[in-house]
Please model this.
Amino acid sequence: MPTAANATLRVALIEDRREIRAGLSALIGGTEGFTCTDAFASVEDALPVLAARAPDVVLVDIGLPGMSGIEGLRILRGRHPDLPMLMLTVYDDDERIFDALCAGASGYLLKKTAPARLLESLREAAEGGSPMSPEVARRVIALFRDVRPPAQADYDLTPHERRLLGMLVEGHNYKTAAAELGVSVNTVSFHVRHVYQKLQVHSRSEAVAKALRERIVR
Model:
């Protein structure tokens, strides 16, 4: 990270389109206070180099040949937990934005971002900020407002179904659950199928994961 004595921000970028990569390299390298340490055409090219010499910030495209930028982000985040990584992409759909942020992106910018704002965002990310294009910020706010699950999901489970789901979370199988409830294994299987339908899952592991993630059972 740059210090007062050395204010130059070291930036690496991963972008497959040669003309965009060259333009970004020229912008970053030609601006006082910034230097482009490396410019890669793919995540596969970047990983071994960045493992040896991590910059202050990485600028990553999403639509890359081979491994996607989001996949690369997950790997880099695992290797460099504190390294700021900004997505720079043409994609502004909810799924990619959500996946990128969950993978550990420090911010999310669209490629139409003005050069001055891009440079400002690189500095902001290096200082611990989370820069986003205005359109992306609006989508993130809407995503959390409209998609975020309730504090405790319901799914219209009956008390009996909720109890049975809790038993699955605790590790019971059909036989042990039937014994504890005083019913037949077929009855347990019948009710579990209803639980799966209501939760829109297809297996015990999916049901347990959803129950824990959305606090359906306590």
Notes: The beta strands are 9-14, 34-40, 57-60, 85-89, 107-110. The chain has two domains: 9-146, 159-213. The domain at 9-146 is CATH 3.40.50.2300 (Rossmann fold). The first strand starts at residue 9 and ends at 14.
